[in-house]
Each structure stands twice: as structure tokens, then as C-alpha cells.
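Components:
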Amino acid sequence: MKDNLEISKFINEFSSNCSKVQVKDFEKGETITTFLVNRNQFCILISGIADLVRYDYNGNRIVTERFSDNSIFGETFYKINTNSEFVVEAKDKCKVLLFSYDDINQKCKAHCSFHKKLIDFFPTLVISKITDLTSRIDLLSRRSTRDKLLGYFNLLSKEYGKSFTLPFSITELANYLVVDRSSMSRELAILKKENFIKQDRNKITLLY
Amino acid sequence: MKDNLEISKFINEFSSNCSKVQVKDFEKGETITTFLVNRNQFCILISGIADLVRYDYNGNRIVTERFSDNSIFGETFYKINTNSEFVVEAKDKCKVLLFSYDDINQKCKAHCSFHKKLIDFFPTLVISKITDLTSRIDLLSRRSTRDKLLGYFNLLSKEYGKSFTLPFSITELANYLVVDRSSMSRELAILKKENFIKQDRNKITLLY
DNA sequence: TTTTTTATGTTGCATTTGCAACAGACTTAT
DNA sequence: ATAAGTCTGTTGCAAATGCAACATAAAAAA
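Structure:
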């Protein structure tokens, strides 16, 4: 995603230097963290893929956000809403950096090399996160499934051209766009019939 | 919103010190900026209220984001998608700080007092923005109008208790939750009938 | 004040979407 | 290789939502 080499160097540098920080490994399916109260927990995903999942009052599982290399997440960024439960789940092997934002921001300030490095990286990490969230909102603020799909395909085509593989399975894409999977499939079928796109599973080609 | 006094002091301090930064005033209805290409433009709203508006291919006007004191916005945070046009419009008198993120981040680094102060404020500003965006996504990831409404009311009640005035008009709330105004009104009527809420225009009381 | 504009609430109707159920393809584990 | 599990595409049907039109209330402008 971003300059991974730099970030890796960063990790090596800090880990011995700051007592406030932990690095942990998680296996596929494990819970990395839950958002319960505001402990100002702050995490950086070093490697792997993880999903922020919300379980609503009906027990429905909704993927609210997806994290990959260098994504930041944690309670720090959340208004905890006790009506839903939030869990970050590892989609595959994950390496995660965990710390309390308060520790870093206040107690450690200017005292440890990790903190100094974090100040350097912080803007890149957060701007990237804001960009992602904003794109997502842009998509979710479209009312029809068709507009969501075309909007998303458009974003991808800016980066990868007319032909690309989705970073999601079809099922996950429906989650990401917050539409019913079968309805989305139906809309994809219409787009295919109208020769707007070609689709084979999660491989898409735009024909316009 | 956040510690306005601090931010005001900050503004007085920098404005003479950094040639890369401008402060501009806008009247109600004026366009503050448009997101066209990536000039890495970065803005901080000092006072007033402004909306980020998207005009889609049909000319529909969609409010994507609302900014108030100390909100940050700009192209820096956007994946520019040429299929829609983005405009930031002043809802009332606005005072805005404008600069290029690159200028601040690279050319000015450690050279001017504005830059040094910005580093101090940056985490607070961005974390607040991320929190807002995340809450919005949490709301938009609910499929029914009822869940969106109750989710939003719930957030407000955490801050203000069972009785509060929406920071939006009813029409704007429908925009924010990305639902049709009349449908939302219908759902509000049902919630009233079922004695979940009391409502008088944008004043809400939760009865549960 | 009066007039004009904008916001709100309501309702009928058409459309879209979600839900449920199922069959076939693909993947993973045994 | 076989079996079990998951993912995908399809369809009928019910429910939710968007759209349009209108009346009334409130706010802004004259």
C-alpha cells in the first residue's frame, strides 16, 4: 500500500525503544480487539488483512471497514455506541502494533525514538485513512445499487484501467457497498446484459 | 467543537509567519473550493458552517459532508473521481485557512512557527475527522431508514441526553442519512405513533 | 405588515431492494 | 479422489423506499 519498506524499518527501530508499545501476531479468524469503552487504544496493522465487524441487535454481521498494510484503527477513532458490538477480526495471519494513544501522545512525547518516528509517519497514515473513509462515504451516499457499483468500478479503473480484479469477493463487495448480495448480483446481471461490463466472479472489465 | 481558544491563538500566531498560508473570508452561498485535480490543497475551517456537495451526472445535489469549526478538508483527502463534481459551499459566513499540504509538509518543515504549531494540532484535528467519518459510515451501513434514525439519535443522546435539537434541519438530516426526505418523514411518523420518540421539527425526545 | 420562499408532513403509486430458497461452481479439508 | 463447506448466480415474492404532488407551517424578504 504505502511505503512498506520505511514502515518496516520503523518497526524494527521502535520495538525495543518504547515500553508502551506491543507487537502481536494473530491467526486467521482470531479477534484482534474489541471496541468497548474508550481506552484510547490505537493500532497499526503491519501485515495481513482484518475486518472491523459490527454485530447489531439482531446478530447480523456487518463489515464496517477493511484494514490492510499500514491501516490504523482502534477506539481512538470511534464514538462508542453501546447498541452495537464492534470487533476487529483477522482475515488471515496478522501482525499488529498496539498502544494507547494517550501514552504515546502525552507520556512518551519527545522521549522515545518510536514516538519521534510516529510523528513522521502519522500524517501519511491518517491522510490515507481519511481518503479511504471519504471514498467509502462517497459510494454509500449513492442511493441505487447501480450507482454504487459504477462508482466503485470507476474508482478502481482510475487506478488499474478498464480491467481489474476486485480486492473483494462478490459477497464481500456487497457488504462493502451495503447492499444485499443477491440484489447486487441481479444488478450485475443487468449491467452485463446492457453491455456495460463483463464479469467473471470478481474480475471486472468495463466496456464504456 | 474542540478547544477553539487554542486554535484562535494559533491563527494569530501563524498568519504573519508563513507565506504559504492564506486566510480567506466567504459569504453565505459562496464556493470555498472545488475538488478538481490533486493540488494537495488542505483547508481548515476557522469559523462558520460549510457543506461538501457532490453534483452527480443527473445534476442531483448530494451533501457528502458537513464542516464546522476546526474541520479539515481539501483535495488531500480525496480520490478525485471525474464522474462527479465536488464543491465546498459556505452555509453562512466562513473564515478558512488555505494552504498546500505539500508546502507545509515539505518546503516549510521546521522552518516556520505555523508549521510547528500545525504539527501539534494535527493529531487532534485528524482524529476528530476520522471519528466523524467513521460514525457516518456506521450509520450509512444500516440498511433501513429506521435503523439509521435510531442509530443517529442514539449517538446524539450519548452526548446530550434523551432530549436534543438536531444539528440539522429535517431536510438536511435526510441528506446526511442518505434517504428520501418524505420516506424519512414517514418513518418518523411511525416512530412517533409507536411512542419511540417525540418530535417537533428538529427537536427530538427519546421515550425509551 | 404582506408577500415570497423554503421547510415540513402526508399519501398514493411505482420501483427497487431485501429476503428466502435453491442449484451449480468452486475451494478446502479429509 | 471424495466429501464438506463456501461462494455465486438466479428467481419469486413481500416489504421498504423513492418519487411526485399537494397542503400547511414557518422563515425570510419586500
